[in-house]
Amino acid sequence: MSRSVFSDRHSARLFGAIRYGLLLLAAFLSVFPFFWMLIGATNITADINTGKVTPGSALFDNIRAFVAQVDVPLVLWNSAKIAILGTAVTILVSSIAGYGFEMFRSKLRDRIYTVILLTLMVPFAAIMIPLFMMMAKAGLIDTHLAIVLPTLASVFIIFYFRQASKAFPAELRDAAKIDGLKEWQIFLFIYVPVMRSTYAAAFVIVFMTSWNNYLWPLIVLQSNGTKTITLVVSSLASAYYPDYGVVMVGTVLATLPTLFVFFAMQRQFVQGMLGSVK
Amino acid sequence: MANVMAQNRRGGLKRYYDVNGWLFIAPALLLIGIFLIYPIISSLTLSVYSGRGMMMKFAGFGNLVRIYNDPIFWKALTNTFTFFIIQVPIMIVLALVIANALNNPKLRFSGLLRTAIFLPCVSSLVAYSILFKSMFSVDGIVNRTLIGLGLMDQPLNWLTDPFWAKVVVITAITWRWTGYNMIFYLAALQNIDRSIDEAARIDGVPSWGRFFYLTVPMLKPVILFTTITSTIGTLQLFDEVYSLTEGTGGPSNATLTLSLYIYNLTFRFMPNFGYAATISYVIVVLVALLSFLQFYAVRERR
Predict the structure, then answer these.
(1) Which of A175, B46, B175, B182 has the fewest beta carbons under 10 Å from its own?
(2) Lowest mean pLDDT among A158-167, B3-12, B290-299
């Protein structure tokens, strides 16, 4: 009896150690490339290529070289403009629709919703050619409007808000109706504040997708004045002999805003995700 | 009289309800119609045309015949499938195991570990492709570490070897997306009643048994959701392979994916919109088929 308890406890302890080891390894592997990026920004290319993992002294040279090749304020402004305005409108349009689909159900609208959900299976590659031709006809090639327009109604975010709306208490709506609020007022003044964490999580997801968007901007933005940070860094890195020290400065610059948004909203993000899986 | 009035009022209420229902979804429907539904249909019509640039002729099933005889298409299809079949299961299992290990109230630093493992999702596809490319260079950190550990005698040229280039792509995608899927499992796990697991533990069910016979079945809907989204993501893989191989598709097209091939057909070579559109519909059909299979596999056991 006592022996079996002992061996149970023993194996539990061993299991716990294995689990901890696994988690630490996963955490290390997850964080290492970020560390590598920061260290890389301070080293010369030759050191990066030979796997040096200690900080070097080339940080300022790398920054100087980067600034000399790239119009940093303009490029960051382009990215920020697209990401912030695009995200704001996307969340507004998609959350209104997600709420509408859930609160005013009818057979026809439910069917439309199903069709919309099915489009999630269509890859972007399948619509990019007609979309490009459409933008060319409208004279929108090389404009930021062309980048933002196709992303404004996000099927995934509509789905996300419809799922989250199921948890919105019906009593709140009824009470507001009795007080004489119109439907848009209920949405704006009651639903939006109550669903704060859902909005925060949606903001994190949409902002990151928009900031990191690559394929569509690559096709549409052709002149240097309109390019985003992602495009610029990518073209620096695809040189025949890329100057990795300089490229690393660029990747740091391209990653900082998303890192900042994530850490600033981490708590609400996790809460919002929890709400969507219920 | 009263009856008629009630009927009128009910009609008015229904109209009020309906008008609001349409108004709320109208902006989204308009945008989806123009920028999603129209291109989807337009792409389907394009697929029966062939020709260069804007000069296109009706080709009927000509594009399908061309697909059948196009070795590069088959190469891209095989590559895409290889990535899908190997990468998605590895990532889903890893994410499940990590989420399960993290979901222990007694675990110290669980918040810190969770943040660290989720962190890769924050990086842009382009940025992490660049990082992986530099880490896997011939004299790079990965080769040096492996040689240092005695696992390898001489440096491996990862990105110019057809087999190892695929391994790098799979490693890179797994690195980026495991934490993302883990968050979904973690969220679902925290909504599961702990007492079931506790009861099984007291009854002497070992932890691996609880994992396979309790946790996994209860997470089935979330696993299905993440498997389908990962399937869609992997089948339209583009950014990573484009960045890792400067858009060429790697050594002898070893990492050429269907999306990259479509891009090349449209914007790199002489544009052939019709043929590219046909290939894009191959992806649509594949995704639909695979999603259906995955639904079916889960439904059947209920």
Answers:
(1) A175
(2) B3-12
